[in-house]
Design brief:
Length: about 120
């Protein structure tokens, strides 16, 4: 229930849910000593806690890179389409960091232009 310093905020997601469920979970976090600073933080913590539980129980596998996550979500038909404008800066930053840690010089703008020209050809 502690914010994971190893994760980055690379996606802007929206949800509709039963407010009673959200309030119940928010109360759980507050009663556990978590500062309720925003709805977004609570949703992020729910996702991270659920992810941690699934991984620990062997019910899910880690996704190694942001690029892999994008491809997988696109394959599921859950691409980032409409939210792309709001996510561009965070995604570009994270992709650049990941490529640099792999020893690759990476320019997200040049990469996007290359992909567009490849698609047209």
């Amino acid at each position: 229930m502690i914010d994971n310093p190893n994760t980055t905020n690379t996606a802007v997601l929206e949800t509709r849910c039963d407010l009673r469920v959200f309030a119940s979970i928010a109360r759980f976090y507050r009663d556990s000593g978590v500062a309720l600073t925003s709805r977004s933080r609570i949703l992020r913590m729910i996702m991270e806690d659920f992810h941690t539980a699934l991984i620990a129980q062997g019910l899910a596998t880690e996704i190694a890179t942001t690029e892999e996550a994008i491809v997988l979500l696109n394959d599921f038909g859950l691409g980032i389409g409409k939210s792309m404008n709001r996510m561009q800066k965070g995604l570009a930053k994270q992709l650049t960091i990941e490529k640099r840690t792999q020893g690759v010089l990476y320019n997200p703008v040049a990469d996007a232009l290359t992909r567009l020209t490849e698609d047209e050809g």
